[in-house]
Amino acid sequence: MTAANRDDVPVVIEGDGVELRTKPIGGDLSVGFIRLPKGAHMGPAMQGLPGDACQCPHWGYLIKGRLTMHTPAGDDVYEAGQAYYWSPGHVPEALEDSEFVEFSPTEDFRPVVDHIKSQMS
Fold this sequence. Notes:
Layout: E1 11-15, E2 18-26, E3 29-36, H1 43-46, E4 58-64, E5 66-71, E6 74-79, E7 83-86, E8 91-94, E9 98-105, H2 106-120
Antiparallel strand pairs: 1-2, 2-3, 3-9, 4-7, 4-9, 5-6, 5-8
């Protein structure tokens, strides 16, 4: 069995109020602790990925805030207290300061994280 506290998970992306902490947790999944400040739109960081969007599925829970998830099928709004599944092909935008925890296939998430990091440098 494995567990992770937010503060024990390493920061892999940080800047302009955006914070992503992630590490493998088992079962080929990684846990992610994410903070997005109001107004953060991840679209520019996703440019260059297929469809200019995150291609990794995520299962999670929105602890705080509100997000719009932009997808080819349209936009959906998620609010604190909701559990979610985001299929490949999404771009988050924070409508409020937001915090969420999610689980993602490690091998699918790694190239997305690497791409975002390269866009930030």
